[in-house]
Amino acid sequence: MADLEAVPEDWSSALVVVAHPDDMEYGGAGAIARWTAQGKNIKYLLACRGENGIDSMEPAACAPLRVEEQIASCAAVGVTEVEFLDHPDGTIEYGIPLRRDITAAIRRHRPEFVITGNYRETWPGGGLNMADHIAVGRAAVDAVRDAGNRWIFPELGLEKWEGVKYVAAASSPLSTHAVDITDSFDASVASLRAHKAYLEALSGDMADPEPFLRSMAEAVGQRFGGVLATSFELLSV
């Protein structure tokens, strides 16, 4: 496989758009920690509250707990502004309502960089992705264009925003770029560990943050100078 290029860092503000609590923490949070340490302003938008994500917990009890854990997770990487939508966990649909909600956030926050999760059908290595990730990632990419057209969603009453310079999808099987997270790796582990209740309900490798994230970072680093790294598919705007 080809070596990865460095993600450009000539920007000052970003909006992370993902489906669930914990999505960015499985790989991408190290980059967020690096960037907030540089003084960049990063905010999060989650399409749902993760209410159906813990099998042993009723959704009504699960949602506020996962929201609390996500806020703590963001704080571990220097992010203080986190917004939650109310699309249904597990059955988020790609469509106009989702695009409208993400467009509204882009117009409000006016980021130069939009970061989302992997929206391809598979993960690196071939495992199947899930429908919520695909729907939200695809909608986030489309909302970048929507946000710049004043005639799309005029009912929002928000000025158009054409200032997005980059769009990136974390942990894509078609990754083109990477970020050195050697100095921010510990923060990425702390960010994932903040999802305490979620991790306790898991089994297997994904339930143990440090070795899981280290193995991912080392694998990406093999294509990026041998450092600990996290990967992104960088899209042209």
Automatic annotation (TrEMBL):
Gene Ontology MF: a single term? hydrolase activity, acting on carbon-nitrogen (but not peptide) bonds, in linear amides
**An annotated GO BP:** glycoside metabolic process
Q: Pfam families, per this entry?
A: PIG-L
Q: What keywords sit in the KW lines?
A: Zinc
Q: Which domain of life is it from?
A: Bacteria
Q: Which InterPro entries match?
A: GlcNAc_PI_deacetylase-related, LmbE-like_dom_sf
> By its UniProt entry, which Gene3D superfamilies does this protein fall under?
LmbE-like (3.40.50.10320)
Q: Could you tell me which PANTHER family the record lists for this protein?
A: LMBE FAMILY PROTEIN (PTHR12993:SF28), N-ACETYLGLUCOSAMINYL-PHOSPHATIDYLINOSITOL DE-N-ACETYLASE-RELATED (PTHR12993)
Q: What is this protein called?
A: N-acetylglucosaminyl deacetylase, LmbE family
Organism, by scientific name, is Lentzea albidocapillata
